[in-house]
Design a protein that fits this description.
Length: about 240
Amino acid sequence: MESFVDFTNRSQGRDQLFRATQYTCMLLSYLIEHKADKKKLVMKLKQLESSMSSGRKMFRLGNMVHALVAARRTTRLPDVVPRFCLTASNLTRALYFVCDAVLWLKSVGLQPDIDKPKWRNWATKCYYFSLLMNLARDWYEISWRVEQAVQEEKTKENFFWDKHNEELNCVKCDSLHGFLFLLFQILKRHPPLLLDLVKNLCDLSGPLDTLGIYKTNPGVIGFCGVLSSLVGILTLSSPHLKLKQ
């Protein structure tokens, strides 16, 4: 109970709970919207989804500063690829929070003349680019670990995981099957990297649909949002599962 209270006391924790609720409502309303006797429930779910979205915008008002501080911190990373990817991600995320704050001003009526579609498009593009930079960093981490594993396999009789020597012998062949097996083992051995990859891939569904790059439906976006939120809650409650910057 104390850990739950501590989690909800943090703004990120509250945002993730609101986010999980928002996308759960989106998913449920999509699943039951064609049932004639569920119209009232669908309306309530969509109202709750809208309320969660507005609440999250208010929680994110100060996140631009956090993103800028994170960008300054990542400029000091020794490795050039993570330094570039994470700094670019944090800077574009800060721009996203600026756009998000402008949209919030429009939603509460403080700036009714704001061009909502234009600002929403800018916000989505910033968020999309930030996710691409995060995925580029994930791929760099994966490729570095794959290369490390292959080099270790070449120089040692006992490969990367002693318990699976016989199984991992298939990696010696340069086949797609061998690469996928090695990739699976690397992600299995590094849960923070796996969780970060899953979260970033799930988060892509929204901007891909909004920008018209790959159209899906609210069901897919809702499912991906719920999964991403659960990963976010898990990494917040268990910091050792968060990929370190």
